[in-house]
Structures are given as C-alpha cells and as structure tokens.
C-alpha cells in the first residue's frame, strides 16, 4: 500500500514537471517568433526605401522605355514639338518687334521750337567778350526744327544769316526786330548757319542743324 502511494506521488510530480516544461517551451517559442519576425519587417522597409530612391534617381524611365520601344515615333513627336516651339518663338519675336516699332514711332521727337534770347544791353559793345550777345550763342537742333529769337533789349536788332566779315548769306534775315518782339525761322536742311546783327556787328551766333 505504501509502495502504491509512492508510485502515485512520483507520477504526479512527473506530470507537473512535464506541464511546466511544455508551458516554458511554449513561451520560448513565442519569444523566438518575435525575434525572427523583426528582421523581416526591417528588410521590407529597406526594400521600399530602395524602390523610392530608384524612382527619384530615374524620373525618365518611362520616356526611355518609350524611346526604346518606338524610336521613330518618338523622334517624329520631338520634331513636331520643336517646330511648334520655333514657330511660337518667331511669332513672339515679331510681336515684340512690332511693339518696339509702334512705341518708337509714338514717342519719336517731332519738330521743336528752340528759343534764343537777345539780352538787354547788347546794343553796347561788351557782350561779345563772353559770347553772350545771343543766349545761347551756339545752338544745336534737328532738321525741321524752328528757332525763335526774342528781343529782350530796348534797342532794335537783326538776326541775319552770314557773318560781319562776309556779309549776309541770304539764307534768312529778320530785318529789324523791335524791343520785346521776336523772329522765327525753320531750318529744314542740315548744316552750320552763322548769323549776326547788321546794326550791331559784334553780335554773332551759330545754329548747327543735324
């Protein structure tokens, strides 16, 4: 009877040990499974990153494949696109040229009137020393422009083409211009035109027409 009890107790202990061993083995298997699965996730992530990097580095893969499959068709499309761009560029250049031409014509300077003053006191010698008998004494204008001489003196003066040494040239002559009066002449031809006052020959000036 005592032997049977000992045997039963031995079997009970063995069963408990086996159960504990099975439980421990199951837990170890779970831990092992986690350890094994982790590298698999890292591997997949690295693969995705490699794929994304490849897409960024080679953005023309589709175009290259298309050229490889049908190079003649691609070249035909490229020639057409180039022709269209060249045509558009030519039209843009023409439009810009027309705009520049219009703006130039719009703002091109037309005939102008330039004023030359005859200062007070020029009827007495002395203004010739500072070249101030006509102000300005020398003027540059363009063909088609007009020069107006305004007499600010109380004495009468003339604006006569030519020089005191050679006399009148016959190109223009104001005759007597009384005080506060004026005389105008339009220069249509380019050239250099000297003039003087026939009453006061020390008064000289020049008009340069371009």
UniProtKB/TrEMBL annotation:
<keyword id="KW-0249">Electron transport</keyword>
<dbReference type="InterPro" id="IPR052721">
    <property type="entry name" value="ET_Amicyanin"/>
</dbReference>
<feature type="binding site">
    <location>
        <position position="203"/>
    </location>
    <ligand>
        <name>Cu cation</name>
    </ligand>
</feature>
<dbReference type="InterPro" id="IPR002386">
    <property type="entry name" value="Amicyanin/Pseudoazurin"/>
</dbReference>
<keyword id="KW-0812">Transmembrane</keyword>
<feature type="binding site">
    <location>
        <position position="157"/>
    </location>
    <ligand>
        <name>Cu cation</name>
    </ligand>
</feature>
<feature type="region of interest" description="Disordered">
    <location>
        <begin position="102"/>
        <end position="122"/>
    </location>
</feature>
<dbReference type="GO" id="GO:0005507">
    <property type="term" value="F:copper ion binding"/>
</dbReference>
<keyword id="KW-1133">Transmembrane helix</keyword>
<feature type="domain" description="Blue (type 1) copper">
    <location>
        <begin position="129"/>
        <end position="210"/>
    </location>
</feature>
<dbReference type="InterPro" id="IPR000923">
    <property type="entry name" value="BlueCu_1"/>
</dbReference>
<dbReference type="Pfam" id="PF00127">
    <property type="entry name" value="Copper-bind"/>
</dbReference>
<dbReference type="InterPro" id="IPR008972">
    <property type="entry name" value="Cupredoxin"/>
</dbReference>
<feature type="binding site">
    <location>
        <position position="197"/>
    </location>
    <ligand>
        <name>Cu cation</name>
    </ligand>
</feature>
<feature type="binding site">
    <location>
        <position position="200"/>
    </location>
    <ligand>
        <name>Cu cation</name>
    </ligand>
</feature>
<dbReference type="GO" id="GO:0009055">
    <property type="term" value="F:electron transfer activity"/>
</dbReference>
<feature type="transmembrane region" description="Helical">
    <location>
        <begin position="7"/>
        <end position="26"/>
    </location>
</feature>
<keyword id="KW-0186">Copper</keyword>
<dbReference type="GO" id="GO:0042597">
    <property type="term" value="C:periplasmic space"/>
</dbReference>
<keyword id="KW-0479">Metal-binding</keyword>
<protein>
    <submittedName>
        <fullName>Blue (Type1) copper domain-containing protein</fullName>
    </submittedName>
</protein>
<keyword id="KW-0574">Periplasm</keyword>
<keyword id="KW-0472">Membrane</keyword>
<keyword id="KW-0813">Transport</keyword>
